[in-house]
Amino acid sequence: MLNKRLQSLEENFGASRLDPVHTSLLRRHNIRLWIKRDDLLHPVISGNKWRKLKYVLNHALSLPADTLISMGGMYSNHLHALAYAGYLLGLKTVGVVRGERPEVLNATLRDVESWGMHLRFISRSGYRRLRQYKHWNSLPGLERTAYWLPEGGATELALRGVGEITSEIGMAYDVLCAPCGTGTTLAGLIAAAPQVEVLGFAALKGAAFLQRDITALLAEANSQTGSWSVNNAYHFGGFAKTSAALLAFIQEFVSKTGIPLEPVYTGKMLYGIYDLVQQGYFPSGTRIVALHTGGLQGNRGFSHAKTIGAGIDGTC
Ligand SMILES: *Cc1c(COP(=O)(O)O)cnc(C)c1O
Fold it and tell me: The whole model's pTM is what?
Protein backbone atom coordinates (compact mmCIF):
# COMPACT_ATOMS: atom_id res chain seq x y z
CA MET A 1 0.00 0.00 0.00
CA LEU A 2 1.34 3.38 -1.00
CA ASN A 3 1.09 6.04 1.71
CA LYS A 4 -1.68 8.57 0.99
CA ARG A 5 0.77 11.48 1.05
CA LEU A 6 2.90 9.82 -1.60
CA GLN A 7 -0.17 8.97 -3.62
CA SER A 8 -1.32 12.57 -3.71
CA LEU A 9 2.21 13.71 -4.50
CA GLU A 10 2.37 11.35 -7.46
CA GLU A 11 -1.07 12.36 -8.71
CA ASN A 12 0.28 15.85 -9.32
CA PHE A 13 3.26 14.66 -11.33
CA GLY A 14 3.51 15.13 -15.08
CA ALA A 15 3.05 12.13 -17.35
CA SER A 16 6.16 10.35 -18.58
CA ARG A 17 5.47 9.94 -22.29
CA LEU A 18 7.17 7.79 -24.86
CA ASP A 19 8.41 10.18 -27.58
CA PRO A 20 9.46 8.74 -30.94
CA VAL A 21 12.66 10.25 -32.37
CA HIS A 22 13.11 10.58 -36.11
CA THR A 23 16.49 11.74 -37.31
CA SER A 24 18.38 11.07 -40.51
CA LEU A 25 21.04 8.81 -38.99
CA LEU A 26 18.40 6.54 -37.48
CA ARG A 27 16.50 6.42 -40.75
CA ARG A 28 19.64 5.51 -42.71
CA HIS A 29 20.35 2.58 -40.40
CA ASN A 30 16.70 1.55 -40.03
CA ILE A 31 16.79 1.93 -36.24
CA ARG A 32 13.74 3.04 -34.32
CA LEU A 33 14.21 5.04 -31.14
CA TRP A 34 11.86 6.25 -28.44
CA ILE A 35 12.68 8.40 -25.42
CA LYS A 36 10.89 7.55 -22.18
CA ARG A 37 10.41 11.04 -20.80
CA ASP A 38 10.88 10.67 -17.03
CA ASP A 39 12.27 14.21 -17.07
CA LEU A 40 8.64 15.33 -17.32
CA LEU A 41 7.59 13.78 -13.99
CA HIS A 42 8.57 16.69 -11.77
CA PRO A 43 10.93 19.67 -12.09
CA VAL A 44 12.85 18.77 -8.90
CA ILE A 45 12.13 15.14 -7.97
CA SER A 46 12.75 14.37 -11.59
CA GLY A 47 13.29 11.22 -13.52
CA ASN A 48 14.93 8.27 -11.92
CA LYS A 49 15.19 10.06 -8.57
CA TRP A 50 11.46 9.81 -7.97
CA ARG A 51 11.43 6.21 -9.22
CA LYS A 52 14.21 5.28 -6.80
CA LEU A 53 12.77 7.18 -3.83
CA LYS A 54 9.11 6.23 -4.09
CA TYR A 55 9.11 2.96 -2.12
CA VAL A 56 11.96 4.07 0.11
CA LEU A 57 9.87 7.05 1.23
CA ASN A 58 6.91 4.75 1.63
CA HIS A 59 8.95 2.47 3.89
CA ALA A 60 10.30 5.39 5.91
CA LEU A 61 6.80 6.81 6.42
CA SER A 62 5.47 3.41 7.48
CA LEU A 63 8.02 2.91 10.29
CA PRO A 64 7.53 5.84 10.92
CA ALA A 65 10.90 7.56 10.56
CA ASP A 66 11.11 11.33 10.98
CA THR A 67 14.54 11.93 9.42
CA LEU A 68 16.11 10.85 6.13
CA ILE A 69 19.90 10.80 5.84
CA SER A 70 21.85 10.23 2.65
CA MET A 71 25.11 11.08 0.89
CA GLY A 72 26.15 12.66 -2.39
CA GLY A 73 28.47 15.02 -4.24
CA MET A 74 28.23 18.80 -4.50
CA TYR A 75 25.91 18.63 -7.53
CA SER A 76 23.93 15.61 -6.37
CA ASN A 77 20.55 15.28 -8.04
CA HIS A 78 19.83 12.56 -5.46
CA LEU A 79 20.25 14.89 -2.46
CA HIS A 80 18.37 17.59 -4.34
CA ALA A 81 15.37 15.29 -4.88
CA LEU A 82 15.56 13.88 -1.35
CA ALA A 83 15.62 17.34 0.24
CA TYR A 84 12.59 18.44 -1.74
CA ALA A 85 10.66 15.23 -1.06
CA GLY A 86 11.41 15.58 2.66
CA TYR A 87 10.26 19.18 2.57
CA LEU A 88 6.97 18.20 0.91
CA LEU A 89 6.38 15.26 3.24
CA GLY A 90 7.36 17.01 6.48
CA LEU A 91 10.40 14.77 7.07
CA LYS A 92 13.72 16.14 8.28
CA THR A 93 16.63 15.53 5.90
CA VAL A 94 20.38 15.36 6.35
CA GLY A 95 22.80 15.39 3.42
CA VAL A 96 26.36 14.13 3.87
CA VAL A 97 28.34 15.89 1.14
CA ARG A 98 31.77 14.89 -0.17
CA GLY A 99 34.44 17.55 0.34
CA GLU A 100 34.84 20.74 2.33
CA ARG A 101 32.05 23.22 2.69
CA PRO A 102 32.64 25.82 -0.04
CA GLU A 103 32.55 29.47 0.94
CA VAL A 104 29.75 30.06 -1.48
CA LEU A 105 27.29 27.22 -1.94
CA ASN A 106 26.37 26.27 -5.50
CA ALA A 107 22.76 26.38 -6.70
CA THR A 108 22.11 22.72 -5.89
CA LEU A 109 23.30 23.04 -2.28
CA ARG A 110 21.56 26.38 -1.82
CA ASP A 111 18.32 24.73 -2.90
CA VAL A 112 18.64 21.79 -0.53
CA GLU A 113 19.39 24.08 2.42
CA SER A 114 16.41 26.25 1.55
CA TRP A 115 14.26 23.09 1.79
CA GLY A 116 15.58 22.48 5.27
CA MET A 117 18.23 19.86 4.55
CA HIS A 118 21.01 19.90 7.12
CA LEU A 119 24.36 19.61 5.34
CA ARG A 120 27.36 17.79 6.77
CA PHE A 121 30.59 17.96 4.81
CA ILE A 122 32.94 15.00 4.96
CA SER A 123 36.43 14.12 3.70
CA ARG A 124 36.82 11.93 0.62
CA SER A 125 38.06 9.01 2.71
CA GLY A 126 35.21 9.41 5.17
CA TYR A 127 32.82 9.49 2.25
CA ARG A 128 34.24 6.27 0.85
CA ARG A 129 33.88 4.59 4.23
CA LEU A 130 30.19 5.47 4.33
CA ARG A 131 29.66 3.40 1.21
CA GLN A 132 29.86 0.19 3.24
CA TYR A 133 26.53 0.91 4.96
CA LYS A 134 23.88 -0.39 2.63
CA HIS A 135 20.80 -0.88 4.79
CA TRP A 136 18.43 1.72 6.14
CA ASN A 137 19.30 0.99 9.77
CA SER A 138 22.95 0.02 9.36
CA LEU A 139 24.64 3.41 9.79
CA PRO A 140 26.52 3.45 13.13
CA GLY A 141 25.09 5.93 15.61
CA LEU A 142 21.84 6.34 13.70
CA GLU A 143 19.01 7.63 15.83
CA ARG A 144 16.05 5.33 16.26
CA THR A 145 13.74 7.53 14.20
CA ALA A 146 16.23 8.16 11.40
CA TYR A 147 16.43 6.36 8.06
CA TRP A 148 19.71 5.92 6.18
CA LEU A 149 19.82 5.80 2.40
CA PRO A 150 23.07 4.68 0.76
CA GLU A 151 24.67 6.60 -2.10
CA GLY A 152 22.39 6.91 -5.11
CA GLY A 153 19.54 5.38 -3.09
CA ALA A 154 20.88 1.93 -4.00
CA THR A 155 18.41 -0.40 -2.32
CA GLU A 156 16.05 -3.18 -3.24
CA LEU A 157 13.12 -0.79 -2.77
CA ALA A 158 14.65 1.52 -5.36
CA LEU A 159 14.69 -1.32 -7.88
CA ARG A 160 10.98 -1.84 -7.35
CA GLY A 161 10.18 1.79 -8.15
CA VAL A 162 12.40 1.82 -11.22
CA GLY A 163 10.71 -1.37 -12.43
CA GLU A 164 7.44 0.54 -12.81
CA ILE A 165 8.99 2.37 -15.77
CA THR A 166 8.93 -0.79 -17.86
CA SER A 167 5.26 -1.48 -17.18
CA GLU A 168 4.48 1.93 -18.69
CA ILE A 169 6.11 1.07 -22.02
CA GLY A 170 3.06 -0.26 -23.81
CA MET A 171 4.74 -1.63 -26.93
CA ALA A 172 7.24 -4.22 -28.08
CA TYR A 173 10.91 -3.24 -28.23
CA ASP A 174 14.33 -4.89 -28.28
CA VAL A 175 16.78 -2.74 -26.33
CA LEU A 176 16.36 -0.62 -23.21
CA CYS A 177 19.05 2.02 -22.50
CA ALA A 178 19.80 4.13 -19.44
CA PRO A 179 22.70 6.24 -18.17
CA CYS A 180 24.56 5.00 -15.07
CA GLY A 181 25.91 6.78 -12.01
CA THR A 182 25.69 4.20 -9.25
CA GLY A 183 23.89 1.75 -11.57
CA THR A 184 20.85 1.48 -9.31
CA THR A 185 18.50 2.61 -12.06
CA LEU A 186 20.00 0.16 -14.52
CA ALA A 187 19.64 -2.65 -11.99
CA GLY A 188 15.95 -1.84 -11.63
CA LEU A 189 15.48 -1.98 -15.39
CA ILE A 190 17.43 -5.24 -15.70
CA ALA A 191 15.26 -6.84 -13.02
CA ALA A 192 12.03 -5.64 -14.62
CA ALA A 193 12.82 -6.32 -18.29
CA PRO A 194 14.60 -9.68 -18.61
CA GLN A 195 13.04 -10.16 -22.06
CA VAL A 196 15.03 -7.36 -23.73
CA GLU A 197 18.67 -6.35 -23.91
CA VAL A 198 19.43 -3.74 -21.24
CA LEU A 199 22.31 -1.42 -22.02
CA GLY A 200 23.82 1.05 -19.56
CA PHE A 201 26.12 3.98 -20.36
CA ALA A 202 28.59 4.91 -17.61
CA ALA A 203 28.74 8.64 -16.87
CA LEU A 204 32.02 8.24 -14.97
CA LYS A 205 35.50 7.11 -15.85
CA GLY A 206 36.86 3.91 -14.33
CA ALA A 207 33.39 2.58 -13.70
CA ALA A 208 34.37 -1.09 -13.48
CA PHE A 209 32.61 -1.05 -10.10
CA LEU A 210 29.29 -0.76 -11.93
CA GLN A 211 29.35 -4.36 -13.12
CA ARG A 212 30.07 -5.53 -9.57
CA ASP A 213 27.60 -3.23 -7.78
CA ILE A 214 24.76 -3.96 -10.19
CA THR A 215 25.37 -7.71 -9.93
CA ALA A 216 25.35 -7.47 -6.11
CA LEU A 217 22.18 -5.40 -6.05
CA LEU A 218 20.40 -7.84 -8.37
CA ALA A 219 21.51 -10.81 -6.29
CA GLU A 220 20.34 -9.16 -3.09
CA ALA A 221 16.95 -8.51 -4.65
CA ASN A 222 16.81 -12.09 -5.94
CA SER A 223 16.07 -10.83 -9.43
CA GLN A 224 15.96 -12.87 -12.57
CA THR A 225 18.04 -11.22 -15.25
CA GLY A 226 18.31 -11.36 -19.00
CA SER A 227 21.03 -9.97 -21.20
CA TRP A 228 22.62 -6.75 -19.92
CA SER A 229 25.87 -4.83 -20.11
CA VAL A 230 27.46 -1.51 -19.23
CA ASN A 231 29.25 0.47 -21.91
CA ASN A 232 32.22 2.42 -20.53
CA ALA A 233 33.25 4.16 -23.76
CA TYR A 234 31.22 7.38 -23.48
CA HIS A 235 32.26 9.05 -20.22
CA PHE A 236 34.06 11.91 -22.06
CA GLY A 237 36.93 12.06 -19.60
CA GLY A 238 34.96 11.56 -16.41
CA PHE A 239 31.95 12.60 -14.40
CA ALA A 240 30.55 15.95 -15.56
CA LYS A 241 33.36 16.38 -18.09
CA THR A 242 32.33 17.27 -21.60
CA SER A 243 33.84 17.75 -25.01
CA ALA A 244 33.05 19.98 -27.96
CA ALA A 245 31.74 16.93 -29.84
CA LEU A 246 29.36 16.05 -27.00
CA LEU A 247 28.05 19.58 -26.66
CA ALA A 248 27.60 19.89 -30.44
CA PHE A 249 25.72 16.60 -30.53
CA ILE A 250 23.43 17.68 -27.69
CA GLN A 251 22.71 20.99 -29.38
CA GLU A 252 21.84 19.27 -32.63
CA PHE A 253 19.69 16.62 -30.94
CA VAL A 254 17.78 19.23 -28.94
CA SER A 255 17.14 21.40 -31.97
CA LYS A 256 15.98 18.45 -34.10
CA THR A 257 13.76 16.79 -31.49
CA GLY A 258 12.79 19.51 -29.00
CA ILE A 259 13.75 17.12 -26.19
CA PRO A 260 15.99 18.84 -23.62
CA LEU A 261 19.16 16.99 -22.57
CA GLU A 262 21.85 17.59 -19.99
CA PRO A 263 25.51 16.69 -20.65
CA VAL A 264 26.16 14.68 -17.45
CA TYR A 265 23.97 11.64 -18.04
CA THR A 266 21.34 11.60 -20.75
CA GLY A 267 23.43 13.54 -23.27
CA LYS A 268 26.29 11.04 -22.97
CA MET A 269 23.94 8.08 -23.27
CA LEU A 270 22.36 9.42 -26.45
CA TYR A 271 25.74 10.27 -27.93
CA GLY A 272 26.69 6.66 -27.22
CA ILE A 273 23.53 5.27 -28.78
CA TYR A 274 24.01 7.34 -31.93
CA ASP A 275 27.66 6.38 -32.15
CA LEU A 276 26.79 2.68 -31.83
CA VAL A 277 24.10 3.07 -34.49
CA GLN A 278 26.67 4.64 -36.79
CA GLN A 279 29.06 1.74 -36.16
CA GLY A 280 26.33 -0.74 -37.08
CA TYR A 281 26.19 -2.20 -33.57
CA PHE A 282 22.40 -2.62 -33.68
CA PRO A 283 20.90 -4.88 -36.36
CA SER A 284 18.62 -3.18 -38.89
CA GLY A 285 15.09 -2.95 -37.51
CA THR A 286 16.13 -2.74 -33.84
CA ARG A 287 13.65 -0.91 -31.63
CA ILE A 288 15.37 1.02 -28.83
CA VAL A 289 13.79 2.69 -25.82
CA ALA A 290 16.13 5.13 -24.04
CA LEU A 291 15.29 6.39 -20.58
CA HIS A 292 15.52 10.14 -20.06
CA THR A 293 16.49 10.21 -16.39
CA GLY A 294 15.84 13.93 -15.99
CA GLY A 295 18.37 15.84 -13.93
CA LEU A 296 18.02 19.05 -15.88
CA GLN A 297 18.59 21.06 -12.66
CA GLY A 298 22.21 19.92 -12.81
CA ASN A 299 22.68 21.98 -15.98
CA ARG A 300 23.20 24.94 -13.69
CA GLY A 301 26.48 23.42 -12.54
CA PHE A 302 27.81 23.65 -16.00
CA SER A 303 29.92 26.74 -15.83
CA HIS A 304 32.08 24.61 -13.50
CA ALA A 305 32.39 21.58 -15.72
CA LYS A 306 35.56 20.97 -17.61
CA THR A 307 35.53 20.66 -21.34
CA ILE A 308 38.13 18.38 -22.85
CA GLY A 309 39.45 18.24 -26.36
CA ALA A 310 37.93 19.64 -29.48
CA GLY A 311 35.66 17.44 -31.43
CA ILE A 312 34.25 16.55 -34.75
CA ASP A 313 30.69 17.51 -35.52
CA GLY A 314 28.10 15.46 -33.73
CA THR A 315 25.84 14.17 -36.46
CA CYS A 316 22.37 13.01 -35.65
C1 LIG B 1 21.32 10.28 -10.53
C2 LIG B 1 21.15 10.29 -11.98
C3 LIG B 1 21.53 9.19 -12.78
C4 LIG B 1 22.24 8.00 -12.22
O5 LIG B 1 21.36 7.09 -11.63
P6 LIG B 1 21.93 5.78 -10.91
O7 LIG B 1 20.73 5.09 -10.45
O8 LIG B 1 22.78 6.28 -9.76
O9 LIG B 1 22.75 5.03 -11.89
C10 LIG B 1 21.25 9.24 -14.13
N11 LIG B 1 20.68 10.32 -14.68
C12 LIG B 1 20.34 11.41 -13.95
C13 LIG B 1 19.77 12.57 -14.63
C14 LIG B 1 20.57 11.42 -12.58
O15 LIG B 1 20.23 12.51 -11.88
Answer: 0.95
